Amino acid sequence: MIKSKLLGSSLIIAGTTIGAGMLALPLASAGLGFSTALVIMLGLWALMAFTALLMVEIHQYSSQDATLHTLAKEILGTKGKWIATFAMLFLFYSLCAAYIAGGGGQFTQRISEFTGFTISAPTGTLLFTVIVAAVVTIGTATVDKVNRLLFAGKIIAMIMVLTFLAPNVTESYLLSMPLGQGLIIASIPVIFTSFGFHGSIPAIVNYLDGHTPSLRKAIVIGSAIPLIIYILWQLATLGVVSQAELVQNSGLSALIGTLARSAHQSGLGSMIGIFADLALLTSFLGVSLGLFEFMGDTLRKKGAGVNRFVASVATFTPPLLFALFYPQGFIMALGYAAIALAVLAIFLPIAMVVRVRSQASSSEYYQVIGGKPALMITGVIGLLIVAAQLMITIGALPALG
After folding, report:
1. Degrees to nearest 5, angle at CA 293 with 289 and 298
2. DSSP of 197-263, one letter per residue?
3. Which ranges of 241-370 does DSSP label H, i.e. alpha helix?
4. Is the CB of residue 267 less than 8 Å from the CB of residue 72?
5. pLDDT by residue (tens digit) across 143-175?
6. Mean of the pLDDT values across residues 64-80?
7. Sign, CA torsion 321/323/327/328
8. Total-model pTM
């Protein structure tokens, strides 16, 4: 039973990680070259796996069904709870804004392709949001059924796309070097966001009954699967399209079109488009459901049920407005999400681990290796990620995508 749960937990972590962020990787890495992007991905994967293991260590000091908010309040007090709440909201809204901005453009194109009708980009974005909002508002069971179908299709489409692209990889394209040091730093927040899965850790802890050895294995295996898939995806995309073309065609729709033209395969453009659509949809459904449940619980009056319409409006209106004002804001919103993710996945785990280690009187609890030096290095990297995004915001670093 534990082996079955271990496999399931690893796949949940992998599924949570692999989403629309995968589409952002070639856009963020366009000016880097494959080798530099690979080094950054390996480093950020190690960082996120390490902080996830810190979360496993923290969970030993609370009940196995404790959420991140519960842990933050128990260990860091009320201020810790509010920091976790604000960071969670900021992360959810940023991700939803990215998915609406990217998915709205894709949806508008699909309507034109399949129906022959041409609608404006804002109208397409609005329709896309309303459809997803309707599915989420109906209930979790509906989201589950729709998501299973979409996820299966996404995996099939991804395998087909990689199979078609692999024979067209050009070695010289993979040897490209960074076009500038600023681009290296600017790419870090987006690539960092692509490895985020920490929101699922409390559910995994509960599912595995708080069994620490199994949790450690699930995190290492579950996070390694996306790393391998990301490397294959980067090989296929950065190796098929020249660096100059990638930089010139920096939008999501432009990337899809460029990949299709470069591979010289009939129907590949449609397959890449389907994969991109499914990746955006599965990610959007998962994140928006989490935000919807959070808003429903927050806005619910004592003794009353959840007003699903009000919760839906609070969930989808802010990110929709962002997407309407910044239709090309897919990469921008993912970059902002990195700030909230750094708080949730780096700073809060470090602060909580420092507190529990100082109070622990027994050595029987599992501790992540590295001691204080590893915590300090991790904290510094977190600060650099936040600083990089802030520098992009003020124009000190180039904006991507």
Report:
1. 145
2. -GGGHHHHHHHTTT-HHHHHHHHHHHHHHHHHHHHHHHHHHHTTS-HHHHHHS-SHHHHHHHHHHHH
3. 243-248, 252-263, 268-299, 308-325, 330-342, 348-359
4. no
5. 878 878 888 888 888 888 888 888 888 888 888
6. 86
7. positive
8. 0.85
